[in-house]
Amino acid sequence: MEIGKNKSQHHALGAKNKSRSIRIVVYILLIVVFTWYIFCLPNPLFQSPYSTVIFDHSGELLNARTAPDGQWRFPEMEELPEKYIKAVITFEDKNFYRHPGVDPFAIMKAAIRNYRAGRVVSGGSTISMQVARMSFNKPRKLKQKLLEALIATRLEIKYSKEEILKLYASHAPFGGNVVGLEAASWRYFGKDPRHLTWAEVATMAVLPNAPSLIYPGKNREILKRKRDKLLQKLMEQEVITAIEYQLSVIEPLPEKPLPLPAHARHLAGKTPFVQRRTTTSLDVELQKRTETLLAAHHGVYAAKGIHNAAVLVIENSTGQVRIYAANIPNTKEEEDVDMITAARSSGSILKPFLYAAAMDEGLLTPGQLMHDIPVSIEGFKPSNHNKEFMGALPAQEALAKSLNIPAVLLLREYGVDKFRKHLQRLGLQTIRFSGDHYGLSLILGGAEASLWDLCAAYSGMAQILSQYGQEASVFNTTLTTPALSNAEFYSPGTIYSVFESMKRLMRPGREGGWEHFSSSREIAWKTGTSYGHRDAWAIGVDPLYTVGVWVGNADGEGHPEIVGSHAAGQLLFEVFYLLPFSERWFFPPHDDMADVLLCSHSGHLAGSNCQPVKEAVVPQSAIHALPCPYCEKVFTDESGKYLANNSCAEIVRDTSWFVLPAHVAWYYKRHHADYHDIPALHQSCDGEISGSKMALLYPHAGSKLWLTTGLNGERMSTVLKAVHTTENALVFWHLNDRFLGSTLHIHEMKIDPDPGMYKITLLDGDGYILTRHFEVVGRS
Length: 780
Prior knowledge:
The protein contains 21 helices and 26 strands. Strand 13 (535-541) and strand 14 (545-552) form a beta hairpin. Residues 469-486 have low confidence and may be disordered.
């Protein structure tokens, strides 16, 4: 009995252990299944690559490129149109908001329909199940459908109903290589999904159910029946009215897929935009018109050997880029090169920055005279584009005419390296070398700049002027232009004065007489042409916009027609005509301006000898400029025709006389008939008068000359050159007190000296004396 009892206990213990083991296995399986259920969703849910998609500031499509796998698959939408939501739920899953991912009633109904039809005519899948299927993208067998149903319930736990709808709309197939509602809307209807009609929305809702139906000429009647049936349901559910239904069913189906917009194509290839949805600050309508304008210009440009051009437009009030046309569209000549960010020789486009910097430091007033004469600075001999010399002219006129010599002389006074550092602080990132590397050619195109940096700097000036007296907003844009707070700009008074000078630049073509018409647009603009005619620049500013234009060849090939004032200037004004009109000019920043007295002759601050003087308003910083150096106090006889001194009995009065240096006056009076030299000393007066009626053009003060030897070893002479303010003056030449000869009208003298130190002395018939020292180093 005891043995039987032990056997019974042993069997009971075994059964108990077996039951425990089964429970453990079940628990483990449950844990495994639960763990799998928790982590069954891929992360991310969809791993397919996306198209690069760029929108303008209002959400209109600018540009799109296929995904790396060749599909038109836009990044997931942030919000679905209400029309589409109602249509797709009505067609695909009417209980969408009530089921947990699986709809048993829909499955049962589909099974009955399939049984009656003897084939599969309905699947019973919910939208959540379809999202699961699209995520795994595997053949649809019964086992797979059961798995999709399970994953769909997990999907409902992680995502809201709205998020699931967006996942479906973004990844559903719409025929061919089109995936997602947004891509399909643009490919088939050429519009944003938000603008689809009810007929178009119904078409979008039924297409994923049989995407191959969209192909032109294939099963279009089936597609129409599906669409119209859905429209009827929407009418029966009172989503749309009977009239909307009647109008919708007569709308035609889409034809072959449309090409997607390809504007601002250079942005689509930039790193920040690759494989992502990007909303830029651009304006699609302005962008299209500008690209059309560039394409129209290409025919004219190409005939002249010019193949590339770029336009950049910044809205000054916000600092946002509105137009980014980085090259002429639809051409084969380096069309993929982004000429907005490319570094190119700057030509004269930097001159307004130099004038503004000098004015801000009190080195000049807007109207003061600047020298414009032949110069040679350590072998550097700049010349003006018109090959003429004005002698002297007001700073604002020198800037408006973009004369090279006044700018070079101003840069020498301001400091090359100082100006180079200033340009860097202004935001010109491509100017990276030292001042010695650029030299004085920095202001004439010796450095490279990009249209991007230049427009940002000019727009920054406009923004300072527009916001004077207000709290300045940050100069910012989705296209990463520099921040205003990080750049070095000028005082409002200086900017206003510089812009006023830039308005005086002669406009091209039909714009030539703009100032005579009250309806004309006021624009401050500047051009630039690089050495060798490789780059033509034009940048214009009004209170609303900054427009920048570059024209040339991306490969650097020069051409005589590549000139800023023509090739780029004409296009600049045509772009301005595309933009909203500014009805007013900048308001003068009165709090940053000062009332001063200026010399009427020189435009400098009036000195004690200046007569007459005039009242003027100048930037506050200009009050620190030096007073006029050109007005002298002289004594004359009663008639004012002769000078007098204390040896004369005829000394009767003193007067102010405007006297330019002789080498300046010689060119100046060619353009100013009212300029009068200081008169000769009266014959009854004793003594000599040292003055500035003569000037040596060559050699320069302190020069070291190398004389040349001919090919046969013969000694070659050098020619000394001088000028005299009086045309018929007789000048006597002396070298180390040895008389060389005299000259009349043209004052040039040949010499052939040995190495050594020399003194050249010039004496005219009125007793004026000029002396200069130079050294002859040797022969080469």
